[in-house]
Amino acid sequence: MRFFRDDSKPEDSKERFYSHTICEGNPDSLVLEVPRHWHDYHDEYMTCIEGQIELSLDDKTSIAKPGDPTVFIERGHVHGFKFPKGQRAVLQELTDPTGEFKQRFFEDIFGSGLSFWSMMRGFSDGDTYIAFTPSRWLDLVCMAVLGFVAKLWLPRKGGVMPKSIAPSMPLDGKKMS
Fold first, then answer.
1. Largest Cα–Cα separation, the chain
2. Domain count, the chain
3. How large is the angle between the packed helices 116-125 and 101-111, nearest 10 degrees?
């Protein structure tokens, strides 16, 4: 995953901060799949830059390819995506509101080694809720319980961090083309 900041865009432009999720597509690599989840505080815009990506939104699944329209995912809607095995693919994601919070979220969950518990800890402090049940309310309860256990099991280095504030690394700095 790579994070970018385009300083030529205004600070509140959704195009200022964006990320690329990259699947190299090596024949022996695992299938990259982001499970069905939802966000309470931000919308997302997903665009397939290279290859093919299976996107699910609510109860519909489609294959996105380069040149297809950007998929708008309104906050509160359940979504996920999957990269096909053995194919290189790149997915671009923008958020509204924009900011470095996505990068900080991923730095947090990957910082102590990606595991179920690091994801639950990060999700509980961030704006990501796994779609465990058909009810958003039950998803919130599940994430609160799992997040609490995760914080006991796998505390953050340096202690508890406020929502959306995790250690930050410099952004890549490349401009959008």
1. 45
2. 2
3. 150
Domain containing 19 equals 2-96
Q: Per residue in 55-85, pLDDT tens?
A: 999 989 999 999 999 999 999 999 999 998 8
Rounded to whole angstroms, the Cα distance separating 103 from 167 reads 10
Q: Which residues pair with 93 in a beta bridge?
A: 19, 46
Residues 35, 91 share a domain: yes
Residue 124 lies in a domain: yes
Residue 158 placed within a domain: no
Strand ranges in 97-169 using DSSP code E only, listed in sequence order: 129-130
Per residue in 90-138, pLDDT tens? 999 999 998 888 888 888 777 767 788 888 888 877 788 899 888 889 9
Work out the end-to-end distance of the chain between its first and last CA atoms, rounded to an integer number of angstroms. 18
- Contact between 106 and 142 (Cβ < 8 Å): no
In this structure, the answer to whether residues 15 and 87 fall within a common structural domain is yes
Question: The pTM is what?
Answer: 0.81
Buried residues in 128-158 as b, exposed as e (16+ CB within 10 A):
bbbbeeeeeeebeebbeebbeebbeebebee
